[in-house]
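Quick question, first post here. What does this chain look like in 3D?
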Amino acid sequence: MFALTLAPLVFAQDQDSVAAEQASLGMSRRINHVFNYLNMAGTLKASEFQPLTQDQRTRIYVNTMVSPLGYLKAGFSAGIDQLKDSPS
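> Answer (accepted):
Ran it through. Tokens below.
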């Protein structure tokens, strides 16, 4: 009887942990994407590095032009330059 009473609570905790794992995995993918972008597209050795094709470069360029993140980064950079009085 006791096990039947607690079964729904255990099931609910399992669902919450699965949702938390999926959210964590999504964030991990985004972080990896950023670091791969900054670190030779995820390659560990320079000999493994493959340059981007023109199609890939164009796709990245278009994505950065329409992404709100680019505007936020530009605004943040401008704010820092304004704070430093650079250029004077």
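The chain is about 75% helix and 0% strand.
The longest helix spans residues 2-38.
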